[in-house]
Amino acid sequence: MAPVHGDPCFWQCGAMPANTIPTRIRWAVDFMDVQPTDHVLEIGCGPGAAAELICGRLVSGKLFAIDRSESGVDRTKRRNAVHIESGRLTVRQIDLATLRVPVKRLTKVFAFNVNLFWVRDCVDEVALLHERVLPGGSVFLFYEATRPEEVPRILERASAALTGGGFRVSVIDQKQPAVVGIIGRR
């Protein structure tokens, strides 16, 4: 049962009503099929909505969420205090290039609207992911297709980055919600 505004844990635990999770985030987390034992890295955790959903599915698995933004990290920590306390969630203010993942091996990596993979050279970051993702694991790069004219370039550049780093790439184009995704499988 989701906490309500009158519940003291709503404010103390940083919980938010479930309906504040955007449809695109719900869809992406469902698409990734997070399992109870998964070890997941979220790149660009923002307000923590995806972390809330992912941690709710974990039992012995862990989520390591990162963001370059101090406010994004703070918002994720407030919203997901109960998951941090349980040990299922670690949140850090850091960029992917300087990350040292505390999990020996990741089963899934997730990013939503993180432009790193299509705006600049990210060879080192993709190499780090390839090193840390287990064989059979996946990298999920999702983009909300609010600017359709950008989609071909995003798909081309992000796919090339993952392919160049040793991942097998597939593309999804979801109409409702309007999301495109690049999945890199190791």
UniProtKB/TrEMBL annotation:
One annotated GO biological process: methylation
**Top-level taxon:** Bacteria
Entries under SUPFAM superfamilies matching the protein: S-adenosyl-L-methionine-dependent methyltransferases
Q: Which GO terms describe its molecular function?
A: methyltransferase activity
Alphabetically list the UniProt keywords: Methyltransferase, Transferase
Looking at the record, the residues that make up the Methyltransferase domain are: 40-137
Q: Which InterPro entries match?
A: Methyltransf_25 (IPR041698), SAM-dependent_MTases_sf (IPR029063)
Name of the molecule in the record: Methyltransferase domain-containing protein
Identify the species of origin: Nocardioides szechwanensis
